[in-house]
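Intended use. Records like the one below are meant for learning the mapping from a protein sequence to its folded structure. Do not use them to infer anything beyond what is encoded.
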Amino acid sequence: MNLYEALCKLPLSQSMRLYWRKLLKKAPETFQLEDWEFAWDNNNCCILRSRGGSKTFDFINWVIFRAVRCNERWMWITPKSGQLRQAKVYFMENPLVKSIRNLNNMSYIVTLWN
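Structure written out for the chain above:
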């Protein structure tokens, strides 16, 4: 089973840990996994952390994980362009991202490998 298949087929918690270990090259903090599991289990949620608390990093990677595992499409909306630029950096660093196409200075289409 390759990594992509494992992310889709393994039990959720095991799949999340595999994503962190193989793609992000680090072990997640307990609160990060708890946030991912909370977001997974709830249609609506809000994760609050202090400034510099890795919210954008964690959410972008959760979106990629969720898109791979569930074959879903997602949209990232932000009120500040700086947050969009930071999100783009995190997408660019992820090995599951095939391409990022710039529609205009505030819109991007991110395509994942499948």
